[in-house]
Amino acid sequence: MPASSVEVLEYAALKELIGGYVSGPLGRAELERVAPCAERATLEASLAELAEAIEFARTQPKLPLGGLVDSSASVQKLRIEGASLEGDEIANLITFLQRATEIRLNIVTEAARFPRLNQRAGGIGEFRLLLRDVAGKVLPNGSVADSASVALTRLRRDIERQQRHIQESLERFVRAHREQGILQEEYVTLRNDRFVVPVVAGQKRRVDGVIHGASGSGQTLFIEPLETIDLNNELVRLREEEAREVHRILREITERLREHAAAIRQTLDQVSAFDLLFAKAAFAIDYDCVIPRFSPDETRRVHLKHARHPVLESVLRREGRRVVPLSVTLDDRVHTLLISGPNTGGKTVAMKTVGLLALMAQSGIAVPAEEAEFPVFDRVLADIGDQQSIEQSLSTFSAHITCIRNMIERATVDSLVLLDELGRATDPEEGGALGVAILEHFRGIKAFTLASTHLLALKIYGANTETVLNGSMGFDENTLQPTYVLHLGAPGKSAGLDIAARLGLPPRVIERARAAMSSTERDIARFLSELHARLEGVSALEADLRRRIEEVDRREAQLGREFEKREADKIRELEGRNAELVARFEADARQTIDSIMQSAENRKAAEQATRKVSRTRREFQEAFAQAVRESSPAAAPGTPQIHEGARVRLRGVRSPARVRRVLPEEKLEVEAGFMKMQVSRDDVEEVLPPEAEAVLRLPKNVTFRQTGPRWDVPYSELNLIGKRAEEATEELDKFLDQAALAQVMRVRIIHGHGMGVLKRAVSEYLKNSPHVEKFYPASEQEGGTGATIAELKEG
Prior knowledge:
The protein is built from 23 helices and 23 strands. The longest helix is centred in the last third of the chain and has 78 residues, at 519-596. Helix 9 runs antiparallel to helix 10 and helix 22 runs parallel beside helix 23. The radius of gyration is 47 Å and the shape is flat. The chain has a six-stranded mixed β-sheet, with helices on both faces. Strands 18-17-16-15-19 form a five-stranded antiparallel β-sheet, with no helix packed on it. It is of the alpha/beta class. Helix content is 49%, strand content 16%.
């Protein structure tokens, strides 16, 4: 993006605003590198990660990102072989690794809910073993702990003992010379890391020892008595050994850290990214932002609903005021917006809002709006404000034209162009003609363009040109105050004289200015005032009409639900009566058939009667279902509501089927018995009610339990393995009766291999059964010679 455009759109102020939410120097360094990007995949991934961060910040404990020191220099030092970190550098690095480990664990525990955050947390190294090895060796203030090594423990104990010996020796010296007037003060102090006593300068010859300095006035000398010199020498030696041991320990810890230098570098990058990411999330929550969408290249669109300029909002918040939100939509049919209206009315803020929010979206930052959608712009080009330059000998007009020339050279169909006060700083007639020509250029290349103007020629151009939309900033005629509301569809009047009067210009000056205006200009101003008044009335009527339509829609939906409930109750009542009649009919028919079957010679006639009863029952139920469908509003032409698991009746298929999957292109995968097939939605004649609702309606306190096999699929089987031949044939007899009654066409009888007794008995019975058309051994997939398939006669 051009630096000048980014600057005038207050992108730096936005980054400063977000910087207030950053926890420390790591995030601030990361924020400095933030810039708009034009890679769609990168942007969408960044915004998806931000959406997770916002949800995490709203629902999870705050991550421990605060108070971390920037350890980048220490990490760089680890890359230099032989270099050793100082104690405070190690302490800061250990604190950083502890926090990083905590951040990683906090996110990993919620990995399922936040997969993108978990992926980033995966870049944080595993340092628990390392931290355990160096734990307690370096204190938070950077000093090495006494317990860091056995040698250091011994040395510091010896130093403490030696200091005590010197202290005691000097205290004896002070007591011995207290009454002699030699000592300036009765205390022991340190000079050049050696214990000394303050002696009056004129008495130095009376004290045997080494002078280590004098006071600022020269009246006091600090002398190390002769008897403590050896003791101090020993203390110096012990301290030198201590320093060597401390250095050895720091070098050892540095080498241990150096083994993980690459992982620490990567962890530093990830924690820095987390600091910035959660700063952007905190900003998004505080400013009620939304994650912007990017429109496809083939249907480009700029769409903002109730958008706010974040920098302006931060200023107004401090003053206790609120921003007036902006709503605007541009697409390939209308891609130029020409904004007019009063001075101080918010035209420039409206354009800056669109431009800055576009830059925010392409920087992976949520935008303050209810809805936001942009194309992915290759450039955001802005000519806003007075860019005159004394150094470059540029007037306001020259700077304006130079900037527009650069924009014309750079702009493409994928650019966003913002032009403030187009045609300004020159003669209005020439400026208007020039402004029209400039807009025509950007309109010709189909770049999204927003321009503001006071010029009449541009307002007329906007009203008469396709793909150009006029807009006006609101102005209250009664209070002479701008409303900062953008109205689309008509240009606005400048109201310069009204505003000048409100700002205190003498009335005689205002009246003279009005008299100097041509009648045409006065007529246009009056026309625009009347037009805006009518637009406001139309907007009010439109809002009232929308409210009434919503009320009618709600009432219509309520009446529809009540009607459907009444119809459903009627259908349930009819189904109950039908089920009761069918049950009574079947009971009477079964009783009659059982009485006929008492005689062997009538058995064949009874079997035929059974099949006819079954067929009659089925025809009656189908006729009843058809009558219900024709009388029910749900049976009106249209596609049935089909979902996975629904029971349906298919054209040309006798038994119900169950929907396994709903496929594209109006296809269904259904299961009818052992068959699975794909059919068209048009083959569905009826969506059956759930089985739980299709059961027989019985009187209160009466229950029904079905016995024997169920015949709601076109295939069933009987397992006779383990039964005696006589018992098996008796069970097979009942099985075939029930299958014939239900009009099942094909059954499988499982008898196994064994000695062949059951198989022979089954074959013998099937050969003489009046229900069986033919029978044969099953295929290998269905059991082979261990099972027999029987096809039954049609009734």
